[in-house]
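Please, structure for the following, as tokens.
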Amino acid sequence: MLSDDELLRYSRQILMPRFDISGQEKLQSAKVLVIGAGGLGCPVALYLGAAGVGTLTLVDDDNIELANLQRQIGFETAQLGESKAESLADRIRRINPLVSVAALNQRLEGDALSRKVEEATLVVDCTDNFNTRFALNRACVSAKVPLVSGAAIRGEGQVSVYDSRREESPCYHCLYPEQGNEDLTCSEAGVIAPLVGMIGATQAMEAIKVISGVGTSLVGRLLILDAWEMQWREMKLARDPSCPVCSG
């Protein structure tokens, strides 16, 4: 049941007939795990918190550095040296005190990662390394928790949704083999600031769609953005029948 304050706060979403109160109530009861509180994690967490996702857990073991401020819009110069996860959580609480936000200033691995994924309604991958992405994918497939994945580097980004509750859905491993992928970081290759906002906002939208059941999610599709040409391309993704993660 939504309170009067919530009905007013979320009125622009509730006004949409296809979303309505039922969609907002699904957001309110959702528990979203956001892994990474950097360039992608900032817009993802800010939009989901403002939109009324009931419980957000933000995970990041890094502290805020000067070079982050060019694109990580959740932070300010006065916060240099502070925990990214805790600072972003505080920002969301100031925007929307009606949601519950937890910050984990640590790297989740192994059983701890599996437990947090199992507790979640949905996971958003905002990380920048393949090892974490593969571990997250395995945990989400095992727990049958949908995963919204995004990546951004230079002027290029991509977004997809992997939902192991759906038989036809591929997983992240179906698209990328674990061998032969090397991390390329923003500090090495660079990234244009608004790109991470565009990809992060798209991830947030996909999360809202999956949670509410409104619209058509990116399951089975990979969106690829060339920001310099402002062109989106779409690739169809099929489940790999020999995938060691989701087809066992």
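The chain has a mean pLDDT of 95. The longest strand covers residues 147-153.
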